Amino acid sequence: MRSAEPTQAGVSTLRPGQEVRGVFACVRKDRLTTRTGSPYLALELRDRTGSIQARVFRNADAYAGRFERGQLVDVRGAVERFRDELVLEVAEIGAVDELAVDPAQFLPTAYRDLDELDGFLEHLAREVHDRGYRSLLDQLLGDRELRAAWRRAPCTRAGHHAYLGGLLEHTVAVTTLASELCQLHPRLNSDLLLTAAITHDLGRTKEFTYGAELGLTEEGRLLGHLVIGERILSERASALDADRKLPLLHCVLSHHGPSSAPGGRFACPEALALYRLNALDAGVKEAFEHGLG
Q1: Where are the domains of the chain?
Q2: For strand 72-82 and strand 19-33, is the pairing parallel, antiparallel, or unpaired?
Q3: 107-290: CATH number
Q4: Could you report the per-residue pLDDT of 55-69, keeping only the tens digit for each?
Q5: What would the pLDDT profile of 91-128 be if each residue is shown by its tens digit?
Q6: First-last CA distance in the chain
Q7: Is 64 within 8 Å of 41 (Cβ atoms)?
Q8: Fold for domain 11-100?
Q9: How far apart are CA 52 and CA 45, in angstroms?
Q10: What is the pLDDT of residues 177-198, one digit of tens each?
């Protein structure tokens, strides 16, 4: 597997006759045969700006073993025009190390500024005054590796906030709604609800893989983000007493509704509030992105 090199200008800028050397996402790979019976590879290569059909005619079977659909590939070739469409005639191709490539080159990203969202998240955390909850949030927000994953992750692969940075955007939105709700209903435990809102999707930080497409880690596939989030919080919240820790975990585990709540019902108003606020932001966002139907 090759180490990655920076990609050339985006697919949308390619022109006939242009020499190409860069990294692309391979989203289609078919082995076909020409009229004379010779094998060739029909590919679709993509980056954030668009996609292009590609063909490998020379040494097709040898190159076929060097990569799979869904991988990032290092490509050298030239752009040609065929039947009024651009086609990349590939001279060399092989898989690259996905860890060495910025996934933002190939995957959709948030339109909102992530630095600004980070600032909003820190501001909302400062609205938590309970020492135990605040200490937990300070620990989570102070973890550079976790913060990077929090900033990178989407919320879903095909639903609401299905893009890099989507988790951070959704977290800020739900927590902002929670802060407003606490003003309207002062009997709510604002420290609990705000902490739960900030941490409710924390499991998403370990749910996804990033390459040519968004995938699932083994943890994500086998456990899901609710269980992963509960495990992260249980590890980090060991210093919390039970009166704080258990309601927080309940809120996180039940934020998809009563069916996901232990016992099949909400045990506190904050859990009900988080469920409604999460569904509100997710539902509105999904309507804008995918329509109301």
Answers
A1: 11-100, 107-290
A2: antiparallel
A3: 1.10.3210
A4: 999 999 999 999 999
A5: 999 999 877 788 888 888 888 999 999 999 999 999 99
A6: 44
A7: yes
A8: OB fold (Dihydrolipoamide Acetyltransferase, E2P) (2.40.50)
A9: 5
A10: 999 999 999 999 999 999 999 9
